[in-house]
Amino acid sequence: MAVIDIKVPDIGDFKDVTVIEVLVKPGDSVKVEQSLITVESDKASMEIPSSHAGVVKDLKVKLGDKINIGDLLAQLEVGEGGAAPAAPAAAPVAAAVAAPTVAVAAVAAAAPAVAAIVATPAAVAAAAEPAHNPATLVSGLPHASPSVRKFARELGVPLGEVKGTGLKGRITDKDIELFTQAVMSGAVKTQAISAQAPVGGGDSGAGLGLIPWPKVDFTKFGPVERKDLSRIKKISGANLLRNAIMIPAVTNHDDADITDLEAFRVATNKENEKSGIKVTMLAFLIKACVAALKKFPEFNASLDGDQLVLKQYYHIGFAADTPNGLMVPVIKDADKKGIFQISQEMGDLAKKARDGKLSPAEMTGAGFTISSLGGIGGRYFTPIINAPEVAILGVCKSQMEPVWDGKAFAPRLMLPLSLTWDHRVIDGASAARFNVYLGQILGDFRRVLL
Ligand code: CAO
Known about the structure:
CATH superfamily of the largest domain: Chloramphenicol acetyltransferase-like domain
Number of strands: 20
Bound molecules: oxidized coenzyme A
CATH architecture of the largest domain: 2-Layer Sandwich
């Protein structure tokens, strides 16, 4: 029997990382590559594996210790010839110590609001909030080491629903076991659907059977700069991911002839120059969408289990680009408001969004959303539905096009429309009809009166 030192291998740029889990104890037999401890920096957690097989004689680290490359982790009793690394057999000890692969898992940022773990029905309900609502408390990635994640995956346990009892709320193997027992006994019901999609933006695609996200040291290829995502981006990202994964979404593209409407808009703005209110195409689009939603109520609805909740109010969200990311203020009761009022409210809300001053009430309750890139450019895109809504209209920049009128080509101002809809609620034929109807209204706004 020989006793060898197991040291911290090359862990890249990580310095002074904290030991957050000790996975073995003296007397335990370990295999080559078996994880000994888990460490965590503010960016990632990783397991440090053993470079040799043997029996743990002494552990040199404890929870909360800070460690660096080359620090002594443990002493291992190894069999005859064990001082030589077990794999590859002929490799020198130093190489073997440096060689073991380190499993890295991104962890949620330390900010409590983002790192909160979804464990309650209330939190699951929060996950159903509008996609871009930064007021929503959304889960971050649950704190758990790669081995715990693997264990949870093997049992099909949705990590997002497990409450961690470890250091800093980390989920431990024991938590997974207790959660499984609670589910088996019927004491706890798991949210199977939320388990399928990593609500907080999973690093491993757990529940979806996806391979882990690639971890690349970009500095190997050239200089880089690291920047934290804004709070809004973190929250909206988690919502967008869920919506993109969970909604069977389809996008229909169409064009609307807005030649006359644009002429009317320009004339209206000229006439009302002194009022200080500028009418943009988006205000007309909101009104036109209200008319289309009235004709096709399933577009102004939400799924609730096997039921469709058809809304009898017309609250329209509009995506606003802000320096901190995307926000979606809501024009409430757009059916009861005129174009001027909508334009004014939109201007006020867009300013508040840019200044980071929107209240939660101003960002909730939409039944349908419009995302307009018309002021910027582009032709078509595929917007992501703002759950729990079931459809969203994307609009791009209008441009003059030659349109065949039956006898000749005429120059017409055409507005590209991209309608994304939830196929669980809406059929392709309805979506095509919605776009056609919307196009008819935008082509001749008098139809709104019919
Ligand atoms: N076609 C051609 N021109 C258009 C247009 C369209 N569809 N829509 C707007 N325009 C013009 C406007 O008339 C205005 O021109 P003038 O200054 O000459 O009058 C200019 O583009 C700028 O308009 P705007 O963008 O300021 O105003 P808006 O009412 O159209 O939009 C708002 C307001 C808040 C929606 C917009 O500023 C914005 O943030 N858009 C981005 C939304 C976004 O990011 N969506 C993507 C979501 S997915 O990531």
